[in-house]
Specification:
The chain has 17 helices and 11 strands. It is α/β, with parallel strands linked by helices.
Length: about 375
């Protein structure tokens, strides 16, 4: 039996992970499940899976969690430190599925404890890539990517011969506004922006997909995870989201991973790796799919792609600034305070105005950069909201 912890168990990725685990109750023992405040969903999952510990990050929700778990024998805890302690408990496999940079310290705690850490939560890798990779090297932890694109590349990449890789081709669905002129994006609503054409996901990543900042973050994520130069990573729009990414080799062969638009497939890959496990997904009906289309991304309509590429090339604090400013801008858009096009403008202004530590080399320094970038982005969103 493998011991498992899910950080962010109540979210979209957490729910998909639980679904796979609950279909195989004899294979897994759940150590800890965490959430921000959704105590009802967290308690129900903890009870169903006989978890040892359930933790909410928001301490104001702990009393409700305790009440929901009364008499079950499941330990309850609350607060940021309690999340970090849960992540630090040694287990065989941890799913990192907290949203945003809030996952940075818990991810680091899990990595320092060793075992296999599955990264769905891409923002820590974007903001603190070098620190995270160094920590994994030091502890001997295995990092596996759950993001469907990076999981696809992981499955296709010949790590023994990275010099034989010509390109990584990251596919992008293009999001809900892939055909909209930029002027028509100005007044889109929250509901229109979260309605992804292919995937069902949490609100923040859905907005990131609509601005294509998600692909920008994934470009940086790919550069962190795979031993290639930045100019070897290409983004191609592939509307059907059937090919999840590709690796192009020097002999002209391109290896692709195909699968349904359901995160349970990449998560199952990381759960069973290096083996394979069954999932409830139906086999792909390629005849019904009929065609696979590819097109170049439109950098003029989706400036987030350029900003992410520039941040990756600049290195140092830039990716952390990009990510933090984007988190603030997306939250402001979701709260109805700024318009859709203001999201990426806010990120660009934060990158232009950032004047803090240029090259953070510890988690505390990354968090200092993160905090400064948030303040810059807040200044912009508050001005726009006024
Ligand atoms: P959701 O918003 O659906 O879930 C987020 C989870 O994190 C919830 O459990 C939430 O708890 C918890 N959480 C939120 N804020 C905090 C906090 N401050 N401290 C601790 N826990 C917190 O997100 P997704 O599942 O969509 O995404 C999770 C991560 O995976 C993101 O980084 C995303 O980019 C990445 N990802 C997601 C994909 C998807 O298909 N959804 C695909 C690829 C990557 P609560 O429910 O209580 O708010």
């Amino acid at each position: 039996m493998r011991s498992i912890t899910i950080l962010g168990a109540t979210g979209s990725i957490g729910t998909s992970t639980l679904d796979l685990i609950e279909r195989n109750p004899d294979a897994y023992r759940v150590e800890a499940l965490t959430a921000n405040c959704d105590f009802a969903k967290l308690a129900a999952a903890a009870i169903r899976t006989h978890a040892k510990l359930a933790v909410v990050a928001d301490e104001a929700c702990l009393a409700d969690l305790r009440a929901a778990l009364a008499g079950t024998g499941i330990e309850a805890a609350g607060g940021e430190e309690a999340i970090i302690e849960a992540a630090a408990r040694p287990v065989d496999w941890t799913m990192g599925a907290i949203v945003g940079c809030a996952g940075l310290k818990p991810t680091m705690a899990a990595i320092e404890a060793g075992g296999t850490i599955v990264l769905a939560n891409k923002e820590p890798l974007v903001a603190a890539g070098d620190v995270i990779l160094a920590a994994a090297k030091a502890s001997g932890a295995t990092l596996l990517p759950a993001d469907s694109e990076h999981n696809a590349i992981f499955q296709c990449f010949d790590f023994a011969r990275p010099e034989r890789v010509r390109r990584i081709i990251l596919t992008a669905s293009g999001g809900p506004f892939r055909d909209r002129p930029i002027e028509a994006m100005r007044n889109v609503t929250r509901e229109q922006a979260v309605a992804h054409p292919n995937w069902s996901m949490g609100a923040k990543i859905s907005i990131n997909s609509a601005t294509m900042m998600n692909k920008g973050l994934e470009l940086i994520e790919a550069a962190r995870l795979f031993p290639v130069r930045h100019d070897q990573i290409e983004i191609v729009v592939h509307r059907q989201s059937i090919i999840h990414s590709m690796v192009d080799y020097v002999d002209g062969s391109i290896l692709a991973q195909l699968g349904p638009s359901d995160m349970r497939t990449p998560i199952a890959h990381t759960l069973a790796w290096p083996d394979r496990m069954e999932t409830p997904m139906q086999p792909l009906d390629l005849v019904a799919i009929g065609r696979l289309d590819f097109e170049a991304p439109d950098a003029a309509r989706f400036p987030a792609l350029r900003l992410a590429k520039e941040a990756l090339d600049a290195g140092g604090a830039s990716p952390a600034v990009l990510n933090a400013a984007n988190e603030i801008a997306v939250a402001a858009f979701l709260a109805g305070k700024i318009g859709f096009l203001d999201i990426v403008l806010t990120v660009e202004q934060a990158l232009d105005r950032y004047n803090g530590p240029p090259a953070p080399s510890t988690i505390d320094e990354v968090l200092m950069v993160d905090d400064m970038a948030r303040q810059l982005a807040r200044a912009t969103t508050e001005r726009k909201a006024a």
